Amino acid sequence: MKLSIISFTSRGLALSLSVQKDMGQEMEVNIYTKYKRLPEVDKAHAKEEGNGKAEYIKENLLTWTGEQFHSENALLFIGASGIAIRAIAPFVKDKLEDPAILVMDEAGRFVIPVLSGHYGGANELARRIADKLGAVAVITTATDVNRLFAVDVFARKNNLVICDRKGIKEVSSAVLAGEKVTIAIAGDYDGKLPEELALISYPAMDKASVIVSPFLEDGEKTDLQLCPKAYILGVGCRRGKSLSEIEEVIGKELLKAGIRRESLAALVSIDRKKEEVGLLEYAKKYHLAYQTFSEEELKNIPGEFTSSSFVQEQVGVDNVCERAAMAACGEGGRLLTKKYPENGITVAIAERKWSVTFDEI
After folding, report:
1. Which of 178, 204, 228 corresponds to the end of one domain?
2. Is residue 118's pLDDT more than 80?
């Protein structure tokens, strides 16, 4: 997470630089201000605090805020909450997409998360800033106020994708009503299960409130499916394959494996495909990391792979998709599906070792 701070007065600017000094070791913090007498204040405060640096914003606040929203930075407004609310209003979309938005008074007494408190991490960030500056974090979300399990916080901390946002309300309502929420987990877990939850075995025989799994079929058995981003697409292809061609083959392989697209973490291939347009477009469209490996790196991946003399002759290694998928998995990974060839494209899926924890949720 990166944090952008905007201030409007001399006192607000000084506080911005203090936050940057205290939080700078934990995350990237960038300072912006609409205070016009920036040079003399910045110079005086930098002398006192260290190497703090602020940028004066010439554009209007609405334009600047829109740019920050698109960059997905967390935003801290130091000033009146009304200023922040009017600035973000045109850009607010969805609780699972909006960045963390916070407001802090220029006296540094209160830090208030106003948007994306759970999934965006605003509540946690407010607590961290408040702890550093001796302020009070003003948290208003019901599960936090009542010290109860928050499923969207659990999802964010465990890198789980929320597949149906309506399920958040169903689960949270049940928790707040004092009802037991059942949860089934396809992988391992550790930590102490919250009192609000009842663990049931996976696969669930009956409907469960929450299911943590990557499988398509589980979506029909639960109020809320959480998908671990633990699956790697290994892809090899002839030069010039289009996005639509690549999508079609990958889609078939995902369907055959029963894996939800939301569970994908990365798209990988050999380094000579580093600039392959179709692969780059696929990774961008589905927000996947795109990584490539050298011929030598792929040769050194241990395991049994589907060998091809043609591929060996063309790229110097007997298999690209399976080896690349396993190369990106790291220790404990496994090949979920073998090489699937179609229309000059090969696809394999590997699974990283994954688990969830209930510690410090």
Report:
1. 228
2. yes
